[in-house]
Specification:
Helix content is about 50%, strand content about 15%. It contains 25 helices and 21 strands. The strands form 5 sheets. Strands 1, 2, 3, 4, 5, 6 and 16 form a 7-stranded mixed β-sheet that branches. A 5-stranded antiparallel β-sheet has the order 17-18-21-20-19, sandwiched between helices. Bound molecules: flavin-adenine dinucleotide. The site of flavin-adenine dinucleotide has 37 residues, from α9, β2, α10, α11 and β4.
Length: about 725
């Protein structure tokens, strides 16, 4: 917090203390106002405008400075001005005062509070942005919540000032009326407590919850409207139909079958989807072969005189297919049928909110279902670079068909998929040029982490070109050339094979979404709410098709919510929880992350402490000739609560699991430090990182005293 704000807080606090010390609060009590009623009324008769203005200004000052006295002043207002004018004057005065208090809290404290607790407050902030007006209205009617507390608390949220003003004015109207009316009979009232009967409080509460109830009704009406043009089948023969048997679809179907629902899973291509056939499984198999090769080349590092490997790239790619075949039974029709899932091989099309048509080899089938889960995945995005089609390219879908190692490979894209494949092909012996439009590869990670990966790539002979924008593909004298723009100049990159890995786009076309009018987001994923419902509350989407993440584990995570909400949403719906999302890029060094990194913390203005532990110092990493990498932990300043972790190094994706569990279950660095880690393992890096943090937080003063104690003990 800056000094001027701090000074202002001190001044305000001093004024409040002075107000109480001078006994100002005694003038704003019920008894005092009642005692002065006759005198005030007499003054009002003689000086009506002056009284109104003075009263208004005083009310605004009391409310704006969050001093106690609003209720007695409201009663006095009723007594002096009567029901109509009292209500009008107080309604505006209290709202203006409340808004001033709101703005003061925002100006003085919000930046500090959001900066310090913004990460924790994220859900509240999102809720306020979406439904803040409803919450505020409800709070205004719950008379037990003090007026000044609401003003100050709302100032700390992202609520717009105008929203605060009008909702406060309307929300407080009923309460103002009650108090002003009571004020008109001030002489007959013994205490403010007597004004509100339990029945009146109940009525207020009902009124308060009315907007929320109304919102639910509006949602139901909206849903009715989207359903209006469709005929609902009288009976459903399935509880849920799942479209797509990738990670998301398989898990959705599994959960539905596990809870004994009748579920049909439709896959038009290969069971297991992307992850099994063209994604995680083949890429990790290829990475392993490339890694073995790289380790053989490093034989001398392990004390071996020489070692060499002969290989045929086609055999490596056949091994990849063999690995897929080995994993295949996990995702097979046989396994899922045995689990109770009806599996249909065919192309699905949603024909109404409750019907799905499937084109199979034996004709078209029509299924009636209560709910639908869309899990149609994503496909590689191919940028519209002139000449790309003529030059030809492979993507993560088709690269697995290669059997001949390209001599010169150009990889477009510096994201995780591009990086993993770049290193693999380079290790097999391709001359690889990696082209990235942005200033660095792995842009989502901290610059020093990207740099570690880039340096390793360069060490392995990869030509990494950042800040290079692909402009055109040409064929010059029979040679394929990619032309890139770099700092205003053209750069020519001759290649034999182009691999396009510039991102993946959700599959949203051609299976009924357009006809049903299901919208897509700006990033072209299916638009869903926090329960993963589309605009049709019985149609859900999960996995790559819904975003915002594109990982197998997030697809399965969302699938749980989609399936459970689709089947049991009428009783209870669960909001998809994205609070702790981890991921890894399986390059060498491997990069794994959970939560915030330093770059994001700076961008979001979230204060944090950064603790790093260099893996080059770790015994096991040294024995394994893998003494490189870093564990970087972000914590709340002065506390051991973890905000995020990045690990770069051997088996980073496995090591980070300890931190994922810690973040998920609120375990801090002290507890990680207090946990026995097996010696010698790479996992000890986690404990040592916690140790670095602890050392930086040792109470030096206490240590000095302890030292004195030991000296004294020695006599
Ligand atoms: C090279 C590569 C490496 C990757 N590595 C990792 C990794 O290491 N870790 C990780 O977590 N993630 C990784 N991913 C991402 C991961 O593969 C995806 O996030 C995950 O597979 C998404 O699962 P999904 O079920 O949403 O979609 P998909 O797996 O794409 O499944 C969608 C399925 O729906 C089917 N379908 C579509 N439309 C219809 C229709 N109309 N009718 C019937 N069926 C239909 C498709 O045929 C497809 O099988 C990688 C991806 C790639 C490309």
């Amino acid at each position: 917090m800056n000094k001027s704000r701090l000074a202002l807080i001190v001044v305000i606090a001093a004024l409040v203390v002075a107000f109480f010390a001078a006994g100002g609060h005694r003038y704003f009590t019920f008894e005092s106002i009642k005692a002065q009623q006759a005198a005030i009324e007499a003054y009002y008769r003689g000086h009506p405008w002056q009284t109104v203005l003075a009263y208004f200004a005083l009310y605004v000052a009391v409310a704006g400075s969050s001093l106690p006295g609003a209720i007695p002043m409201t009663l006095a207002g009723g007594a002096i001005f009567g029901l109509l004018w009292g209500t009008v004057i107080i309604s505006f005065a209290s709202t203006v005062g409340a808004t001033l208090a709101f703005l003061a809290s925002r100006f003085l404290l919000r930046e500090w509070v959001q900066g310090r607790f913004g990460h924790t407050l994220r859900t509240i902030n999102e809720g306020i942005e979406k439904e803040g007006a409803f919450y505020l209205f409800t709070l205004r009617l719950i008379v037990a919540v003090p007026f000044f507390v609401i003003n100050l608390a709302m100032g700390l949220t992202p609520m717009r000032t105008w929203t605060f003003y009008w909702v406060s004015q309307t929300g407080m109207l009923a309460g103002t009326l009650v108090y002003v009316n009571a004020g008109t009979q001030l002489a007959a009232i013994d205490s403010p407590a007597g004004i509100l009967s339990p029945a009146l409080i109940g009525a207020f509460l009902l009124l308060g919850f009315f907007p929320l109830i109304a919102k639910r009704i509006v949602d139901a009406v909206k849903a009715r409207r989207v359903y209006a043009r469709w005929r609902r089948p009288a009976k459903f023969d399935r509880n849920v139909v799942v479209i797509g048997a990738g990670s998301a679809g398989l898990v959705s179907a599994y959960i539905a079958a596990a809870v004994k629902a009748k579920v049909t899973l439709i896959e038009k291509h290969r069971m297991g989807g992307d992850c099994l056939n063209t994604g995680c499984v083949p890429s990790k198999a290829l990475i392993k072969s490339a890694r073995v090769l790289s380790q053989i080349r490093r034989a001398r590092d392990y004390g071996l005189k020489a070692a060499s490997a002969e290989f045929d790239f086609a055999d490596v790619m056949e091994r990849v297919q063999r690995v897929i075949k080995t994993v295949e039974p996990h995702d097979s029709v046989e396994r899922y049928t045995a689990l109770g899932v009806e599996c249909i091989q065919g192309e699905a099309k949603i024909t109404s909110p409750w019907t799905v048509e499937v084109k199979t080899a034996n004709g078209t089938r029509k299924l009636a279902t209560r709910a639908i889960v869309i899990a149609a995945g994503a496909r590689p995005f191919v940028p519209p670079i002139p000449g790309i089609e003529q030059a030809g390219y492979v993507t993560s879908d088709t690269v697995w068909n290669l059997r001949k190692l390209p001599r010169r490979l150009t990889v477009l894209g510096g994201g995780p998929i591009g990086c993993e494949l770049t290193q693999c092909f380079a290790r097999f012996g391709s001359q690889v040029t990696q082209v990235e439009m942005l200033p660095r590869i792995l842009i989502r990670e901290d610059p020093e982490i990207s740099d570690r990966v880039m340096k390793q790539f360069q060490k392995e002979g990869i030509n990494v070109l950042v800040d290079h924008k692909a402009k055109e593909c040409r064929i010059e004298n029979g040679e394929k050339v990619l032309v890139c723009e770099h700092k205003g100049c053209d750069v020519r990159i001759p290649f034999d094979q182009l691999l396009c890995a510039v991102g993946r786009v959700a599959n949203t076309q051609g299976y009924g979404l357009e006809e049903l009018g299901i919208p897509v987001t700006k990033t072209r994923t299916v638009e869903t709410n926090e329960y993963l419902q589309t605009i049709y509350p019985n149609i859900y989407a999960c996995g790559d098709v819904a975003g915002p993440f594109q990982f197998t584990h997030t697809a399965s995570h969302q699938a749980w919510y989609a399936a459970v909400n689709a089947l049991f949403g009428r009783f209870r719906k669960f909001r998809a929880d994205y609070s702790v999302i981890p991921w890894a890029t399986f390059t060498d060094p491997e990069v794994a992350r959970v939560g915030l990194n330093e770059t994001e913390a700076k961008e979001k203005n979230i204060p944090c402490e950064v603790t790093t532990y260099g893996i080059d110092d770790l015994d096991r990493a040294i024995t394994d000739e893998e003494a490189h990498g870093v564990v970087k932990v972000l914590t709340v300043p002065g506390k051991d609560r973890i905000l995020g972790v990045t690990i770069a190094g051997e088996h980073a994706g496995d090591l980070i699991v300890e931190y994922i569990a810690a973040m998920r279950h609120g375990i801090g660095l002290n507890k990680i430090l207090g946990t026995i880690h097996i010696y010698p393992t790479l996992a000890e890096a986690n404990k040592y990182a916690a140790g670095v943090w602890k050392k930086a937080h040792t109470p030096q003063e206490l240590l000095r005293w302890i030292e004195k104690f030991h000296t004294w003990m020695r006599g």
